[in-house]
Design goal:
alpha/beta; Quinone Oxidoreductase, Chain A, domain 1; Rossmann fold; 2 domains; six-stranded parallel beta sheet; 10 helices; 15 strands; ADH-like_C
Length: 324
């Protein structure tokens, strides 16, 4: 028997329980891995609270890294002892060991540690598709990233800066502004005391930005639109403050024929070739030092309730990992 987090009903952090589970042996096309580090993401909160429904009882967690300890029939390209990482559904990464499809994992290069990988598979691949595919950032662009001191935010700041962009980011405190600035954010805006729409217009000499990456949702939606230049792109990739209100298309017309998209990582990585290419690019920027995995919090997996409470209260910065 091994330990894992399970929950039987939606609710607060207290619904997550540290219990014994049977993992079983891998079937055809599957592997069993011993997990050494597990990533914590806001989507885990959405599943726990029921904003994103899951069959219950169930598990949580979308990403982890570890070592292959058993192979099912027909698995090629992997061996026992290989270091691997993954992101994917169904949730269940909050566990000491797990069986999952071999196609769900990627091998880790020596230059990327288990902890780095576990902290960036979801957030780092999200940053990859946001910056390289949803809106392909070019040298000289000025972009706005909401929640710049969060896990995705710090990765976007660093990566966009490495691409030659000027980065504007919103944060909730002076301390987070310093963190964001240290990670490539040229213009951190403390939204709790500054009008970030006004500041964006000032920074861009009234022009606005070509893209806003927004994971906050309800609280920032309209103000984010007001930061965009004509023909700009509003990218909604999260709902930390709650779902967006019903959208009136005239809001986009009246602000200059704006574009709107609600992308998901799992659409972008649905093809194995895309998953591999995205992961390779992520590992390359990590290995080069252009982007660093900012692991600012570590919790025992059994203490995941506290980790969720801190995440929801915005007491965390950068990435958080859970140690099985």
């Amino acid at each position: 028997m091994v330990k894992a987090i399970r929950f039987e009903k939606t609710g607060g952090p207290e619904v997550m329980k540290w219990v014994d589970v049977e993992v079983g042996e891998p079937g055809a096309g599957e592997i069993r891995i011993r997990q050494t580090a597990v990533g914590l993401n806001y989507i885990d909160v959405y599943f726990r609270t029921g904003l994103y429904p899951l069959p219950l009882p169930g598990g949580l967690g979308m990403e982890a890294a570890g070592e292959v300890i058993a192979l099912g029939a027909g698995v090629e390209g992997l061996q026992v002892g290989d270091r691997v990482a993954y992101v994917g559904r169904p949730p269940g990464a909050y566990a000491q060991e797990r069986v999952l499809p071999a196609a769900q994992v990627v091998k880790l290069p020596d230059a990327v540690s288990d902890e780095q990988a576990a902290s960036v598979m979801l957030q780092g691949l999200t940053a990859q598709y946001l910056l390289r595919r949803t809106y392909r950032v070019q040298p000289g662009d000025t972009i706005l990233i909401q929640a710049a001191a969060g896990g995705v935010g710090l990765l976007v700041c660093q990566w966009a800066k490495a691409l030659g962009a000027t980065v504007i980011g919103t944060v909730s405190s002076d301390a987070k502004a310093e963190v964001a600035k240290a990670h490539g954010c040229d213009h951190p805006i403390v939204y709790t005391r500054e009008n970030f729409t006004k500041r964006v217009r000032e920074i861009t000499n009234g022009a606005g930005v070509p893209v806003v990456y927004d994971s906050i949702g309800k609280d920032t939606f309209e103000k984010s639109l007001d930061c965009l230049a004509p023909l700009g792109l509003f990218v909604s990739f999260g709902n930390a403050s709650g779902p967006l209100p019903p959208i009136d298309s005239s809001e986009f017309a009246g602000r200059g024929s704006l574009f709107f998209t609600r992308p998901t990582l799992f659409t972008y990585m649905a093809r194995r070739t895309d998953y591999e290419a995205m992961s390779a690019e992520l590992f390359d920027v990590l290995a080069s030092g252009k982007v660093n995995a900012s692991i600012n919090q570590r919790y025992a997996l059994s203490d995941v309730g506290q980790a969720h409470a801190d995440l929801e209260a915005r007491r965390t910065t950068g990435s958080t990992i859970l140690l099985p």
